[in-house]
Amino acid sequence: MGTPRHAAIHAADPAALADFFHPERGVYFDALQGVCEGPARARALLAHAEGRIPVFPPHLFSDSFGSLSMTEWETSGDAPLKGISIRRMSGPWIDYAADYYDTGPLRRAAARSGRPMPAVPKGGPEIRDDRPVAPLSEAARAWLAARRALRAAGGWDVATTVAQPSGLSVRDMHAIMNDRSTERDFDIICDLMHPTESLYVDPIFGHFRGQAVIRQWLTDIMGKVGKATYLPLGIALLHDGVSFQEWQQVAPLPDGREIPMTRGASVRRFESGWMTYAADYFDTAPMLDPEVQAASKAAGSTVTIEDVLRYVKLPSA
Q: Residue 249 is part of which domain span?
């Protein structure tokens, strides 16, 4: 679980975190402000973290690179937010930190009051992690093969709820959720969701509860996003039933280019052979960029405003 200093950083007040940034290589990414380097600007940016209420107790991962602190949070007020804070520590310092949340509520509130807002950040700090990803275990491969064979044989209706737990370990479920072969297999993802005690949180569409409701939304909307893909930023982490992955969504174009769409992080929670919780944190503002919208369409997205309105009422400007 990291060093005592890492635990102290993990528990520190957000506004004081700048004191722990590495004086030279410390980098901070904020969904609203973008990239900043060095402790001085980081202090100013981290100060606005006050008022965030943790949704779950903060979680601390450890690996060969050091420790990573993750906190899911929400705020109240006129422009309530839901987000995630990440702090990567190696040695005695924070090398990297990020806050992911949808800036839409803040930007709409600013527009109503006539206040200026920062431009939408493009890109973010590079995260290099060349460690190989472990292959799926025999048990995970067997479970995937059985689910896919059942579907291919017509022996399973997508409207049917999977009622029995997977029988997989937490590590196997984590590996399946982060395997590239399942990235677009939304039924496989839903097969792992608990029939009634599962929750999926999405910045655009809100909260979905229960396997059947999650499946209806996920297979409908995500099945229309075309070839847009999520490039992992660093290796997926797992500890005590909680899985974490940071990512960059890109739209691959026919000419071979990859257009960045949005950057974010995902959390998955597993228990007793089920996935009980999934949350994706990202800013929707980059998706309003005409270049990003054109790239998304060129990559095969067919999602329409009518699709969105089936699940959510859009906020007023």
A: 138-309
Which has more confidence, 146 or 312?
146
Determine the Cα–Cα distance for residues 301 and 226; give it in Å rounded to an integer: 4
| One-letter amino acid for residue 40 of the chain | A
16 with 75, same domain: the answer is yes
* CA-CA-CA-CA dihedral for 112, 118, 123, 128, to nearest 10: -120
Q: Which one, of 311, 290, 285, lies nearest residue 81 by Cα?
A: 285
Two tokens at 28? 């901070």
Domain membership flag for residue 204: yes
Q: Tens of pLDDT along 186-245?
A: 999 999 999 999 999 999 898 999 999 999 999 899 888 889 999 999 889 999 999 999
Residue 14 pLDDT level (bands cut at 50, 70, 90): low
76 and 156 housed in the same domain: no
Which of 103, 121, 146 is the last residue in one of the domains?
103
Structural domains counted in the chain: 2
The CATH code of the domain that includes 19 is 3.10.450.50
